[in-house]
Design goal:
single chain, about 210 residues, alpha+beta
Amino acid sequence: MGKVIISRRSVLGGVATATVAAAPGAQARAMPTVPPPTMSVSFGVNGRRRVLEVDTRTTLLDALREQLRLTGTKKGCDHGQCGACTVLVDGRRINACLSLAVMHEGDEITTIEGLGTPDRLHPMQAAFVKHDGYQCGYCTPGQICSAVAVLDEVRRGVPSHVQADLLAQPQATNLEVRERMSGNICRCGAYSNIAEAIAEVAGAST
């Protein structure tokens, strides 16, 4: 059997070929493009039945903003930490950025656009205007949706972390309201005015 002679040039040439083949760009060009999986989802939005074809990874927030053009619901942190994207689903508040659109088949969704109109404001919207419960206004839609849900939680007897007796009927006290609204961040610091607006609506409903 003859002796195999390996030259330095052949070794370097092989390494270069392997490096090019393993490069991310080379692999990407070699792989076929696969379209993302989509699904049809049907839900009610502000009293109107909507049917969407969505990428299964699409959040409810993006479906509302990008496909239905309901841009009142804001994208803030996109991590469920600021509350700017709060909407009501079957009457209960959620962070729309943390929920996939396809999870809401058959649900009834209410955004800030569905609470009231400029000509007929929801009582909470009117209270926010009266008490200057906003400055830049970016967080305001989420604040208002959350505030509406907070008073509903109190009426339904849902306890909070600051409630001493979990079996007692909660009251919309300043401490209770601030605790329940703690997931909605206002970078302008209008918290006192927001609390005053909620207190006015709470008082009018009792």
